[in-house]
Amino acid sequence: ALQPAPETPHSQSCANVTRQAGVTLPVTGDHPRSIGIKAAAKANNLELRVVEEPKIPEHLAVSKLGKVPAFHGEDGLKLFECIAIAIYITSHNEKTTLLGGTRQEYAHILKWMSFFNTEILIPLVEMYLPLIGIRPYDHPTVTAHETAAQAAVDVVEEHLLIQHNNNNNHNNDNNNRTLFLVGDQLTLADLFCAGIIAFGFQFFYGKKWRAANPHVARWYEGVVRVPVYQAALTEEVTFLEEPRLRNVQPDGVETRGVGSEDG
Length: 263
What we know:
Largest sheet: 4 strands, mixed
Strand order of the largest sheet: 2-1-3-4
Helix content: 40-55%
Mean pLDDT: 86
Low-confidence stretches: 1-19, 257-263
Radius of gyration: 19 Å
Structural class: alpha+beta
């Protein structure tokens, strides 16, 4: 099989010698963009020292915009952008299967990581902020973000249905098997993307939603049971009966309208 991740002096030396990869800055609790990174480190038996205080000088020296997460390696490497960090941590193990077995699988892994990080997480966050009072509330705007997030989830649901049907052609006991985003085994795409969409399951995706999106729900429930994923969490995974947040104006929060700062 082709090795999709390029071999570099850093990755070779780290795979053979270094067991402490460095420091991630900062990660407060189970941050959706950091869960997959921590899970990949667990898979490679790498120790990450996590600093949970944002925008301290050490953080800003790595990420000038103060974005989460950032990474400072023991070898001096500084990285920001969660996908770059996740790929780097995973590639410490030259024999890893988490980056796929072919260049095509590697490309699909990157595709899904980028898709979840932009098309799912961003609209979910845009829904979340006005519902907890951080931004002025505007019902049509929240609805638009909810629609955008669901349209992206629909793409994943359709893809996982195809994965499900393909598995059915090879295994009659397929209904009990975990679905994967790429190929027929766990990859970084699963660990990273489950961490991203965990934000939706934490606040919005109740029992009714899971019934309407069965393949996404089944995929997520399978990935979060993986030991390295669970080892990356600070809190136990739970599933909502009803959404914790709904598209209604929260008490004490202004309604966005003409003349507002965000208008």
